[in-house]
Design goal:
This protein is of the alpha/beta class. The protein folds into two domains: 282 residues, Aldehyde Dehydrogenase, Chain A, domain 1, CATH 3.40.605; 178 residues, 3-Layer(aba) Sandwich (Aldehyde Dehydrogenase, Chain A, domain 2), CATH 3.40.309.10. Helix content is 37%, strand content 20%. It contains 14 helices and 20 strands. α2 packs antiparallel against α5. The model has no long low-confidence stretch (mean pLDDT 97). The structure holds NADP nicotinamide-adenine-dinucleotide phosphate. NADP nicotinamide-adenine-dinucleotide phosphate binds next to α7 and α8.
């Protein structure tokens, strides 16, 4: 069965770029094939745009900026809410597209549509609250204050692990602020982005305000980064590419937001029930088959409960079902491609060669070449890749620690600083860890931490800026200060 036959609305499956409100072929005839990672079958093809076509998307966005910024905030809100309603109405089709191109199980894909749509609703409303300030004047007979103005065209480069929500978290904020966007999705998962474009058009978002360009990543991103008409770049992806884009944006001094990799510690205190903590750690590790920037990458367990924790973790992990995400009752889908499987295997080999113990994870049981069975390693040390690198795979590494000071040092022993988890009921330990952990987000006794109202983002080499929350829209706004002088006597100035 083809992808479009599996949708109740087949027009959501588009195999063109979307520029200036038009579905666009590649002028040079270059194409890419998109595969289902669970089966290896081709799902469809996408055009690779030529340089001039990407520049044309910037022309279109710049032209659209004039009208889009001139709308009242409540008018932009209405359009975005119409988009939100369509995302909700087509949730099942959007989830099907996502599962087929990304691999995640259908319940997770439905959850992501819900999550992605929630940013559209949030920012639709936030756009009405981009308040300036009144500043008590130090200048005689003057009124001082600030206005918030949209920065201009925003380029958004997004990854494959959350093919819909990573777009809406950026695009809704930018569009609510009055900025048109040019989205460059990951080549593995373009169809979710294109379905978003189809629904944006139906929602009455004007031509040129939401564009999706497809092409060779390095080529497209250079055009977007070097063009002075693009005023903001927001990127979610690896730290390696983030560094490169930051450098490229220096030429035009753009506003840059980066949501990069993570290497989350999951700290379990000695007072915890090993079963409760282990079940939470399994939930924090295996979402999206471990391909999640928030995934618990280093599990640090107090030595007094280490063995009991490992036993509980292994038994919970053994209950996870691995398979094609489109089928019912699957917990873990495939990895995104064969290279990801090879990387996971090399991380496990590296750990074993340095003395780690393999508690569970028999790759002979994998249901296909792109699958990696959940794997548990103990005795993980800081020299191992499984500790140092974001493994982005269903590989869990556990390390025992002795006291709070030691675990703080261990947890901070990374260039990353996105998210950390702490499990303990001791309020002094909670406060000490909360303050000492060098992370942008710390979740205490909770696996769930994200959603529209929170400032999502990392410190150190995990990124710049915050998405979501009341500050997420600021990434797309300039503050203009004004001084109105010679007003005569201004009472209260
Ligand atoms: P990636 O390789 O950095 O790719 C992300 C995006 O960058 C894709 O659109 C990709 O395009 C593009 N890209 C790749 N090489 C490029 C280059 N040389 N120049 C310009 N653009 C380039 O990351 P990924 O493997 O897709 O995603 C996984 C990473 O994203 C992980 O590190 C994860 O932690 C991070 N992530 C972070 C967050 C967060 O909120 N902090 C959320 C999700 C994921 P092509 O696909 O066309 O190559």
């Amino acid at each position: 069965m083809t992808l479009s036959n599996m949708l109740s609305d087949p027009r959501l499956f588009r195999q063109y770029a979307y520029v200036d409100g038009k579905w666009t072929h590649g002028d040079g005839g270059r194409e890419d094939t998109v595969f289902n990672p669970a089966t290896g079958e081709a799902l469809g093809h996408i055009p690779l745009l030529e340089t001039e076509q990407v520049s044309a998307a910037i022309d279109a966005a710049e032209a659209a900026f004039v009208q889009w910024r001139a709308l009242r905030a409540d008018e932009r809100c209405e359009r975005l809410l119409a988009w939100y309603d369509l995302l909700q109405a087509h949730r099942e089709d959007l989830a099907t597209i996502m599962t087929l191109e990304q691999g995640k199980p259908m319940p997770d894909a439905r959850g992501e549509v819900e999550y992605g749509a929630s940013f559209v609703r949030w920012f639709a409303e936030e756009g009405k609250r981009t308040f300036g300030e009144t500043i008590p004047s130090h200048i005689p007979n003057a009124a001082l204050g600030t206005l918030k103005e949209p920065v201009g065209v925003a380029a958004l480069i997004t990854p494959w692990n959350f093919p819909l929500a990573m777009i809406t978290r950026k695009a809704a904020a930018a569009m609510a602020a009055g900025c048109p966007v040019i989205v460059k999705p990951a080549h593995e998962t373009p169809f979710s982005a294109l379905a978003l474009a189809e629904l944006a058009e139906r929602a009455g978002i004007p031509a040129g305000v939401f564009n999706v360009v497809l092409g060779e990543a390095a080529e497209v991103s250079k055009i977007l980064c070097f063009d002075d008409r693009v005023k903001a770049l927001s990127f979610t992806g690896s730290t390696r590419v983030g560094r490169l884009l930051l450098e490229q944006c220096a030429n035009t001094v753009k506003r840059v937001s980066l949501e990069l990799g993570g290497n989350a510690p999951f700290i379990v205190g000695p007072d915890m029930d090993p079963k409760e903590a282990a079940y939470a750690a399994v939930a924090a590790k295996f979402q999206t088959a471990g391909q999640d920037c928030l995934a618990a990458n280093r599990i640090l367990v107090h030595e007094s409960i280490h063995d009991a924790f490992v036993e509980q973790f292994a038994s919970r992990m053994a209950a996870l079902t691995v398979g094609n995400g489109i089928e019912a009752e699957v917990d873990l889908g495939p990895l995104i491609h064969r290279q990801a499987v090879e990387k996971a295997a090399s991380i496990v080999d590296d750990a074993l060669s340095q003395g780690a113990t393999l508690v569970a994870g028999d790759q002979l049981e994998a249901p296909g070449p792109n699958f990696f069975m959940p794997t548990l390693l103990t005795g993980v040390t800081p020299q191992m890749k499984v500790w140092r690198e974001e493994n982005f795979a269903p590989v869990a590494g556990i390390t025992a620690y002795g006291d709070d000071d030691q675990v703080i040092e261990m947890a901070n022993d990374t260039e990353y600083g996105l998210a950390a988890y702490v499990y303990t009921h001791d309020i002094r330990r909670i406060w000490k860890l909360l303050r000492a952990l060098e992370y942008g987000m710390v979740a205490v006794n909770s696996v769930k931490m994200t959603g529209p109202p929170i400032p999502f983002g990392g410190v150190k080499q995990s990124g710049l800026g915050r998405e979501g929350g009341v500050t997420g829209i600021d990434e797309y706004l300039e503050t203009k200060y004004y001084c109105l002088g010679a007003l005569g006597s201004v009472s209260g100035s």
